[in-house]
Amino acid sequence: xxxxxxxxxxxxxxxxxxxxxxxxxxxxxxxxxxxxxxxxxxxxxxxxxxxxxxxxxxxxxxxxxxxxxxxxxxxxxxxxxxxxxxxxxxxxxxxxxxxxxxxxxxxxxxxxxxxxxxxxxxxxxxxxxxxxxxxxxxxxxxxxxxxxxxxxxxxxxxxxxxxxxxxxxxxxxxxxxxxxxxxxxxxxxxxxxxxxxxxxxxxxxxxxxxxxxxxxxxxxxxxxxxxxxxxxxxxxxxxxxxxxxxxxxxxxxxxxxxxxxxxxxxxxxxxxxxxxxxxx
Length: 280
Prior knowledge:
Helix content is 42%, strand content 12%. A 5-stranded mixed β-sheet has the order 3-2-1-4-5, with helices on both faces. It is globular, with a radius of gyration of 22 Å. The N and C termini lie far apart (50 Å).
């Protein structure tokens, strides 16, 4: 049965990964795969077909709980049955989580107005921003993002080859207008304490909030997003990336996927955009 599962998994993912990569993953030879691929006929039930389709559509990023949540929107099925099927065919989440600690020397700080209270009832009222590195192409790139913690939606982002004030300012300028009392949280890096960034935020009437020194958990939502972006794309790609343009494409596609397709448990298994549309 193990051989059947391996061969079936390879056959179902041959359009996404090379045979060489897949056979190396399972520790078998190419000849083993070719000998067995036509020996067995696999007949999936409708439930198995639907689970397989959902795991592939979502790039094997979801565990059985989220796949069960998606299936349950269509028909009733037990969560344990979904878990058994995914385990049987090797369709479980393949993303490996990575932790990233962002260094930086603070220049000055504002009061921590947020104080880890991210709950809010309206869009664009509590936002968080950060810059993370992208060391995956021909040279280092940097991603600046702004997240709306109302629904975890990425409402502004920009990629640059310099993690400077201009990158942060350009990202902030993508948002034309904030509601009265909007709060923007960041770390204490000199990028966010620069005079230029301060003036742009002031003109937009944004209240500033900053994490405590050496406490990245104060900015957990955006840290978590950057970690997910890398662990669900670059860290599961074992092949080298040939150009920075590919890195940019991967990031932009992931942000589109995150905003529009990636369901979040805290949003009732809705994507950020779907949750915003439902609640506003």
